[in-house]
Amino acid sequence: xxxxxPKGKNPGLKVVAGTDQPCRRREPVVAPIDGAAVKPTWLRGxxxxxxxxxxxTYQARGQSVAGCESxxxxxxxLEAALIEQYRKRITPPVAQVNAFRILAAEFYDTPxxxxxxxxxxxxxxxxxxxxxxPPAGDGGADA
Length: 143
Prior knowledge:
Blueprint: H1 11-17, H2 45-61, H3 69-87, H4 94-106
């Protein structure tokens, strides 16, 4: 299961933003695989066409999907099934739509997954709303 909350930032972006903390770095677990993604033989019809379109889009983005062919094939098959259900005017189950949304986010195919959330200035910490600033001119000592 994926971690809750927004996607993590790239370590390079954290260094540039000045928010890099070595103790919180997440290193890649798997080395990237060179080469093109190979379409599974069981993928047919509309799902195979979606595969071709998605791989072309990912190549244009510079996003490697080599080694993730199984997940991409499931994503394409699920999208093809959803399209077929909508064409037949059948409302798909919510669980199926949610599974599609999760896979779409994993492959950065949703607008929200393509950008990092904006930092909200001035929000402060958890207790910032209840903190009171001392009055001006008062040294804090009773006279």
